[in-house]
């Protein structure tokens, strides 16, 4: 997401990097690069024009032109303006209403309303809310069944009614039943259309009236680009939406909708969908998104993801293992890989680290998921004794592991070598740290380990594309 714009902004800042003084011509060169990036990202032309005007005005101030660190000054200006057009601050759902508080999910067909309804239901459930979902989509065949299957899979309560009852009547019944069953929140998945039309809006308005929805969220496919703005303006005009959810951001390298929709509608983005998994729904933080765009990382979201899937006991156990790397085994490493995989695609996690945007091309060439699966396959083909005692892995054992995991013996050899090298290095770092009063080698509290990447990089015969070869 935002890969192209991130690259353009990086190029723009490089034009003044290392300068102790800049001129008005330098500022124009920076703005030209930013303008190209915004247009390529499919940002709405009105938003791009206003953004550039404000950035230009700020950059041409005397304190910037005569600053000893103009790059940092321009970086701050870009960050502030990006945060501004993205909505300034995180806006939480407003659920302060007599239960059940109703959330109306609306949007065009194919925008991802049904999946997002379940994702949001799971998000609220994990926050301790008693939440139920219901489909009032009587237009699309099997829509009610789709929501029922998804909600069952992820254990989100579903209220189900027959389609012939009618959308408005289903909404009425669902709110009544949700109240009887003491649900705090009711998420209503509405029907979509291929385009905004009068019939759709009338039905939504009536459902909104009978449910008294406290939140009316527009689900928008981010890959629609500037068309997303037109859709948002239409829904806001007729429905007075309270916010939006941008889906499929993981599949859109441009991201223009996110940079346009808040400014043009005045309504905040409340959530973003960053993947196909039901867990891939994130609250939207403008400052964090701006930080990602400027390649300053998003460590706070990374921490949030870790806290959601890794228990305190797991983190403590992992930290203790890292403090005593001499006893760190392949079984421990396997557990840590499972922890990381719970947080989402490793490529997405790496891009949340500061500076990783500059390595986006290298990251794109590395199939991180494939390398992790290969490492898992190698470890799974070992016995428990071998995982706990990697020093016993002689030639015959390695040949058996290679055969069992579908790899070459050289793949297994390189993987084990990298693991043992990383363990040795971290053990030495721990000793040095203790000598200088550092205690645990600088890894206490880090459940993911560090100092070396034993999986990946082994490649195939003739040279592969693993982590070790790239980085």
Q: How would you sum up this structure, described in words?
A:
It is a single chain. With 471 residues, the protein is an alpha/beta fold. The protein has three domains: 3-85, Four Helix Bundle (Hemerythrin (Met), subunit A), CATH 1.20.120; 101-285, P-loop containing nucleotide triphosphate hydrolases (Rossmann fold); 306-470, Orthogonal Bundle (434 Repressor (Amino-terminal Domain)), CATH 1.10.260. It has 22 helices and eight strands. It has helices at 3-14, 24-40, 45-59, 62-65, 70-85, 113-126, 143-153, 167-180, 198-211, 226-239, 256-265, 286-293, 299-309, 312-323, 330-342, 346-350, 360-365, 368-380, 384-388, 395-405, 409-435, 467-470; strands spanning 101-106, 131-135, 158-159, 185-189, 215-221, 243-247, 269-273, 281-283. It has an eight-stranded mixed β-sheet with strand order 3-2-4-1-5-6-7-8, with helices on both faces. Mean pLDDT is 79; it is low at 435-471.
